[in-house]
Amino acid sequence: MTQVVSCAVIPAAGLGTRFLPATKAQPKEMLPVVDKPAIQYVVEEAVRAGIDDILIITGRGKRSIEDHFDRQFELEYFLETKGKEKMLTTVRDLADLADIHYVRQGEPLGLGHAVSVARKHVGDRPFAVMLGDDLMVDESRVLKAMIAAHETHGSPVVALRDVPRADIGSYGCADVDDPDEGTGRPRVVAVRGIVEKPHPAEAPSTMAVMGRYVFTPEIFAALDEVRPGVGGEIQLTDAIALLLDTGPVNGYVFDDGRYDIGSKLDYLRATVELALQRDDLGGPFAAFLEDLMARRGGTLSAAGADRT
Ligand code: G1P
What we know:
Number of strands: 13
Shape: globular
Largest sheet: 5 strands, mixed, barrel
Bound molecules: 1-O-phosphono-alpha-D-glucopyranose
Order of helices and strands: EEEHEHHHEHHEEHEEEEHHEEHH
């Protein structure tokens, strides 16, 4: 019987260079989206999918992540004496979200290496990998479906989304056996091959690996085998390719609700979508956007200005 997936590894050791200067002195995972740091959404997504044991892989300069999920007695005392009960609960609940552990990556040798440092913590359990800068605004639909697929098939599962061919070079790319191709429905497919950041002209498909994975512990042995790949880094994708030599790997294809928080444009998109979803802010924020559009003559693009 397949074991229940109750552990998630969140690699959060990257430098966030695409978001400079905001990430010069703070981790990109701590950038606020509306009023929560991006990584809190990822942790909440894990918890909603039934995970209660989380290992965050950190590195230099990531201390604020640990502080965020820890108790802060001075602040709690202040809120308590001021009678700010709601705020107090918000701050306290954060420390009780899940069992959160931390380990440092040491050297920035790549995503595959970051996952490999989780080995001791994970042991012989299946586990999820959730990239700290991939934000899902989908009530954990994708992760839950991936865990269900793993429980049915027993194999590793990677999240996949069809992207324009010009963009595939920014992602892991999976060659899939997809009987439902073209329907756009979320579905489980068989992965035939996988390659990290191929040149668009040579990519085997336009199915991009998004930052959610479910693995069995076999991934650690595969990571031991992997030699530095794209960018001179130990790539997780290359280890998945090795898994394909010994057994099946599945893909879970979905089509929306994912944002790359390390990209400025996706960050703005995520902020707008999540703000519109909020009970307390959605109404007035939507009114503002509509008013802004009206003031610009019915379009959001500045009158006569470029859309860039
Ligand atoms: C990483 C992975 C890549 C995956 C991507 C998803 O790349 O190596 O396979 O498609 O995350 O966000 P990175 O964005 O860290 O360059």
